[in-house]
Every structure is written in structure tokens, then in C-alpha cells.
Amino acid sequence: MASPRSRAESIDARRREVHEQLANVELELTALRRTREGLSDDDEHDPDGVPLSAQWSRLEGLKQMKLEALAAIHEAEARLARGEDGRCRVCGRPIASARLAARPEATTCIDCTP
Ligand SMILES: [Zn+2]
Mutual orientation of helices 7-37 and 52-81 as an angle, nearest 10°? Predict the structure, then answer.
């Protein structure tokens, strides 16, 4: 392996990264909720900004993505513990190392990824 990091380390680093991103999204959601509470209905349509409702759905979508990434990271760790790491959970073939480097939580190969 060319990578100096073990799989456990890169999965762990990825988890910390996603946790941090999730925390940031939560902060933005909290800030947005406060802004929304401070506005009357008329202010919802800010002429020079993205409507709050659009910002809200963007952030909710982001949050959902981060939660799914955390679930995938958890699964990748469980597979590593079972010795199934690096194999596609659909077809059983090895997952390309470049793919694992880019997405340490990947549990499927490129071909089996929807
Ligand atoms: Zn596959």
C-alpha cells in the first residue's frame, strides 16, 4: 500500500471530518432558525438574498447527506472489523484503492454504486 495511513486511520479521519461538517450545518440551521423567528412573514422574501425557505431546504439536505455519510462510515468500520474491508458488499470484488482513498467509507465498487 502506498498510503501511509491504515484503513482504520483514514476511516477515523473521515469520521472526524464529517462530524465537523455536520456541526457546522447544525450551527447554520440554528442561526437560520433565529433569523426566521425574528422576521415577519413579509420579510421571508428578501429581494437581494436567497429566500430563507430555500436556504433551509439546502441545509436540511446537507444535514441529511452528512448523517448518511456517518452511517456509511459506521458500516465501513464494522466491515473492517469483520475482515470484509475493501470488498464490494454487492458483487464482492475488490474496491479500487483510489476510490477508497477518496471515499474511505465506500462499501461498494464503482460499478455497484447507484
Ligand atoms: Zn461491486
Answer: 160
